[in-house]
Amino acid sequence: MAHGRLVIGSKRYSSWSLRGWLAVRLAGLDVEEVVIPLAGGVTPAVREMTPSGTVPYLEHDGARIWESLAIVEYCAEIAPELWPADRATRAHARSIASEMHAGFRGLRMAMPMNLGRTFPGQRRTPEALEDIARIEAIWAGALAAHGGPFLFGERFGLADVMYAPVVTRFLTWGPELSETSRGYAAAVRSHPLMERWYDEAAAEPASWQIEKYENPA
């Protein structure tokens, strides 16, 4: 019997849901997965099922957790190895995860997540390019310090979870990236959980697709 449920949005579009889902799967939580089709904004279905009216939302063993970063930290309490063991390194990982959670609005607005289409060269706004430059610097610093292939070494951890939707955006929109960034993006994309998410996104009904994301102006 499942010990709770994870409520997420459409896998084709929901970047925050991807973060929560990856953390829950990495921590090995036994929860029922509930997918709600998104409509480009808050819907009555989401409001009915989650306290904040947003996804992801996790219920597990009596805990009720919303906001991706809170879900990530809850999963880390169950599986501490998902953060680096060294205190200073762990602080670095948490810092870049928090920066992702709080920032990069220019990238989010210009290049929304869509796992079923590619739009290479489009939407390269000054704000998005500024965000991309900062993300590349974050990635380059962590990879140089810890040897890759993931941000803090050989394990796909919670810092990678927070940046995984950025990888999908880069694959969809095709901005110019350094060789280091391309290598990291390839490592994230090939992780088995990412392969599973992409496969399940591709299997969603066509009726769930949203015009403004499928044919952006």
TrEMBL record:
Residues 4-83 form the GST N-terminal domain. InterPro entries: Glutathione-S-Trfase_C-like, Glutathione-S-Trfase_C_sf, Glutathione_S-Trfase, Glutathione_S-Trfase_N, GST_Omega/HSP26, Thioredoxin-like_sf. One of its GO terms (cellular component) is cytoplasm. Gene3D superfamilies: 1.20.1050.10, Glutaredoxin. Residues 86-217 form the GST C-terminal domain. Pfam families: GST_C_2, GST_N_2. This is Glutathione S-transferase family protein. The lineage of its organism: Bacteria, Pseudomonadati, Pseudomonadota, Alphaproteobacteria, Acetobacterales.
